[in-house]
Every structure is written in C-alpha cells, then in structure tokens.
Amino acid sequence: MPDIHAAIDYLQDLPLYQTEKPFWCFLPPDHPAPGPDTQRTDNLEFEPHHNLKITDIRTKAAEISLEAYGFEVLSHTSALSEIASLADVDRYKAETRELLRARLGPASFVKCYDLKLRKNVPFPRREVDMNDPLHVEGPARGAHVGMRLTRHITPGLGSSANIFPRGNRRPI
C-alpha cells in the first residue's frame, strides 16, 4: 500500500492538562445541553495537523520493536470471527492476555481491562450504556494511543497493583 497524506486531529498540549486530566462525560441524548454557566462536559481541545505522511507499517514490522519504539506490530488471527456475546468478550480478552504473555515472556501479570468495539459509521441512538462491553462506538475522536501511568497504584488492579515496582508496568 503506498503512503498517503492526510490531516489528523490531535489533542492540544494545553497548560490545563498539567493540572487537570483530559475528560469527556457521556450524557444521555435527551439530557438538556449544558448552558454557558454550567460545568463543561469535556475539556478536550483538538487541533488539526495537516499533510501528515501515513505509512502502512505492516511491511516494516521486522524493523519495529517494543523496546525501540514503545510499540510493535504483531500478526495474529483471532479465533473469534465476531464479538456478539459477553462470552465472546471474555474469550477475546483471554486470547489477548495469552498473546501478550507469549510476546512479553517474563510478564508476571497481564490484564486486558478494556475493549472497544468500533464501526466506521454514524450511530444515531437514544441511549448509551458505557458499561455494556458489547456497546459499539463510531470512529475514535482524534489521534489516540494507550495511556501513560503516573501513579504507583493503578485503578482496576486491586491488591495486585502493589506487586509491581514503580516504573515496571507498561500499558499496551
């Protein structure tokens, strides 16, 4: 696949984000729009970056390593052809954990804590349940990758969080 050039929206590097984590609150569609004197439902400010070169890195997979770039390309065909039930969600998360364990070798703990089902189509809806693992979202808003851990105790790991020395955890 040849390289292409495109515009991608990135979160602005605002001083606000040094003291306030970027957030976006989901409200029911029938919820009245917040007025100018109410608390914001998000603090996200994006800016477009134009004429960015996009390269299909699958042909360069052997040159890209987790150690050198902080990510890598893994070739894997899932045993699941679709995710249509809660059991499928559990199977997919287990498959992801095993794939990462096999790649990371010495990892003593791997947790797949999130799963987003997306389709590249608009989704008009009257109700959204963000706790539903089968919830399908539209395209992602702006460029995004993983997250940065800044605290020693990681929410969601419970008592397991204390077994990891600071700096020895890496979200993937």
Walk me through the topology:
Elements lengths: L3 E8 L34 E9 L11 H4 L16 H19 L12 E2 L17 E2 L35
Parallel strand pairs: 3-4
Antiparallel strand pairs: 1-2
Outline the structure in words:
The protein has helices spanning 66-69, 86-104, and strands at residues 4-11, 46-54, 117-118, 136-137. It has 2 helices and 4 strands; from the N terminus they run E-E-H-H-E-E. The protein is α+β, with helices and mostly antiparallel strands. The model is unreliable at 146-156 and 158-172 (pLDDT under 50). The strands form 2 sheets. Strands 1-2 form a two-stranded antiparallel ribbon. A two-stranded parallel sheet has the order 3-4. Helices cover 13% and strands 12% of the residues.
Q: What attributes does this structure have?
A:
172 residues; alpha+beta; two-stranded antiparallel sheet; two-stranded parallel sheet
Give a short synopsis of this structure.
The protein has 172 residues and is of the alpha+beta class. The chain has two helices and four strands. The longest helix is centred in the middle third of the chain and has 19 residues, at 86-104.
Strand order of the largest sheet: 1-2
Overall geometry comes to: globular
Number of helices: 2
Question: Whole-number radius of gyration?
Answer: 19 Å
SS strand fraction:
5-15%
Helical amount among residues, as a percent range?
A: 10-25%
In angstroms, what separates the terminal alpha carbons?
26 Å
Count every beta strand, where a strand is a DSSP E run of 2 or more residues: 4
Q: Mean of the pLDDT scores?
A: 78
- Poorly predicted runs are 146-156, 158-172
* Subunit organisation of the chains: single chain
Structural class: alpha+beta
Largest sheet: 2 strands, antiparallel
SSE order, as H and E?
A: EEHHEE
